[in-house]
């Protein structure tokens, strides 16, 4: 067995096998039709109801899956695009907190599916029915309360694919389904390797040689490591496949348990493991990698902190991006405004700017500034003499002349005053904005309003 390639924090490499074996779209002869048939018998459930508290003010007014990502997308687009590209045409998005922008985006971006062809993307907000006094009590409860919609008596799907709506990755769920059917245990859990130091917020698992899950611990204080690999833990990706009938049994049993937290990771998955009905699916088997770099590590990043949000964007800005958004065979679908091309012009002194290792979206105007290793979203304006490094400017941001930004995330539609310097003085950043221990700085409209009211100097 070969060792996996070294990982950088939060970036996932293939579990249990060498990354050189990652060839997700190179299916064997005769498998494409079989995979398509399996996909037609499945319904996908995207769990998009979390608060996203670890993203701090960035998710204050938006559900985490609705956050802008990658210059023109929303985070939820990755899970939905994986479904569509895998042949799964029946999808449901379960929402609860700050759901308006998420519902609006899904309605606008995914309305092209045709109900008469048994295709759908249903948005299912939290609701109360007769006799119910609570909103969703957990991820499992959210699915349980919608079983009559997800599994109608007519045309009931055989398989249910459950996934989080706040991860960025490309995965062929048809191959995951094929693995699930081949093992025939009732539940399949997609898994990946991450550094043990980062595993305390995941479901950590161990597996037997036949990939049957031996143990599963959600959010362990001391995550167990993999055999002979003390620095690596095997974790659940939060992507599950269930036989539909088995999932109903599990959810009905869980609903009657007064001690349950009604959560997939804390309650449902441990139940399947205790019944010896859970099997692990190594991510390398179904990841979608670029054809030009078949040995590249499979990419999966959970967008749950400001540092992770920035790091994922820096991955996109790399010379060879770890996540390929230019793959016409596996496109990421989204809703986008009709905007003119990006424009680059001389600064006030007639000198050109310089943009290196960065993505610049439509509708942007960059006036003679230096931008490196950054992601610039749509309709951004950057005025003269700015110096921007390893930063993310979200849609509609306006950057005044002479600004210097280092490791900064700027919320959409912010207007940065001239001469603002952020990311060079940690103490000054903390007094004005949100700064993480790793040095990522978040700027929001509310923070800028407070800055103006307090008349705090722009530069430290």
UniProtKB/TrEMBL annotation:
Recorded metabolic or biological pathway in which this protein acts: Glycan biosynthesis; glycogen biosynthesis
Segments forming domain Nucleotidyl transferase: 44-317
Site (Could play a key role in the communication between the regulatory and the substrate sites) location in chain: 96, 135
Keyword annotations from UniProtKB, A to Z: ATP-binding, Carbohydrate metabolism, Glycogen biosynthesis, Glycogen metabolism, Nucleotide-binding, Nucleotidyltransferase, Transferase
Glucose-1-phosphate adenylyltransferase/Bifunctional protein GlmU-like C-terminal hexapeptide domain sequence ranges: 340-443
One Pfam short name: Hexapep_GlmU
Superkingdom classification of source: Bacteria
Enzyme class: transferase
Molecular function terms, GO-annotated: glucose-1-phosphate adenylyltransferase activity
Record field: catalytic activity: alpha-D-glucose 1-phosphate + ATP + H(+) = ADP-alpha-D-glucose + diphosphate
Family from the record: Belongs to the bacterial/plant glucose-1-phosphate adenylyltransferase family.
Function noted in UniProt: Involved in the biosynthesis of ADP-glucose, a building block required for the elongation reactions to produce glycogen. Catalyzes the reaction between ATP and alpha-D-glucose 1-phosphate (G1P) to produce pyrophosphate and ADP-Glc.
Protein name: Glucose-1-phosphate adenylyltransferase
Organism: Variovorax rhizosphaerae
